[in-house]
Specification:
The complex is a heterodimer of chains A (157) and B (208). By secondary structure, chain A is of the alpha/beta class. Chain A has 5 helices and 7 strands, in the order ααβββαββαβαβ. A 6-stranded mixed beta sheet of chain A has the order 1-7-6-3-4-5, with helices on one face. In chain A, helix 5 links the parallel strand 6 and strand 7. The longest helix of chain A is centred in the N-terminal third of the chain and has 15 residues. The termini of chain A are far apart. Chain B starts with 13 loop residues before the first helix and ends in an 8-residue tail after the last strand. The chains are: A alpha/beta (157), B alpha/beta (208). Chains A and B meet through helix 2, strand 1, strand 2, strand 6 and helix 5 of A and helix 1, strand 1 and helix 3 of B.
Amino acid sequence: MSKFRKKKSNELPPVSTASLPDIVFMLLFFFMVVTVLRDDNLLVQNKLPKADQVEKLKKDRSVYIYAGKPSARYQDKFGTEAKIQIGDKYTDITSIKFALTELRQKLRPELQDKVMVALKVDEETNTGKVTDIKQELRELNMLKIIYITTPGNELNQ
Amino acid sequence: MARRATPEVNAGSMADIAFLLLIFFLVTTTIEKDSGIARQLPPIEEIVDPPKIKEKNLFIVNVNRNDQLLVEEKLMELKDLRQAAITFLDNGGAPSGSPEYCNYCKGPRSPESSDNPEKAVISVQNDRLTSYKMYIAVQNELVAAYNFLRDRESQRLYGWKFTEMSKDLDEGKIKGEAAQDALKEKLETIQKLFPMKLSEAEPKKSGQ
């Protein structure tokens, strides 16, 4: 009898936390892999228009162009006229070509021919601005563009 | 000399360090999924002999500086644009028996509207002062019209919607080279039935 009684203990064994670091590390690695550190510091307002007939953007072969009014904290310096931003700085319409060529060279060589220009344009911008950008792109022979939008629809608000 | 055992490193704080890193990455993560309306711009080249498009095969959408729509010379609300475009594309006005006859169109077959989807062209004309919001909304509605018709044909031929097909292909849900190729072929067939012919005129200067 005593043989059995010896093993019996009334206390619950404490939960082992030895595997906790493993679990945390697993999560850590997941987030490390999916994290994209924001590379562009946004200088313009960027409230994207809504659309629902969309395609996904292939990120590895795209360059971004932002356009819109300067953000609130830059407005006293740059005014409220819509501006174009490429990379980290405002770009004039005439120097778009140079800026884009530079950006394209940063892509992987085999994807440079398939480059796609992602236009992130604020919804209050005039279409004329976008047309100017498109004209420059045509001259640069970067013909694939994608208008980045947010999910939704203008009709049912 | 007796060997002294190296004392074991205390790993108790490992979890804390990992948590710290984890929280950092949690905060900085932005799982961005950009999506949008893709377009191919026309290359710059001198067009010597522009193809003649009959008036009835042209669907003109005009957006003015106050974001109002003029479709085929009539004022229209944005919500009606999709249906109007579908009716135009799906019209199939060419008489039966002629080589241009469209046997899958289900439209009213009015001789005043487009001959077949192959010939039908939608032309969008913007003002420079049109808001980008409106521009995208119009583009979205027109793409929606095409998608609606493509979905319908795809459903009829393959029992699978066009938009779902291309989505599955994009997301890599289709495994195997053969299956992918077969699907691409199907997509192309549908695209041929309703080719997307969206033309964009150079925007006019305001007031012209």
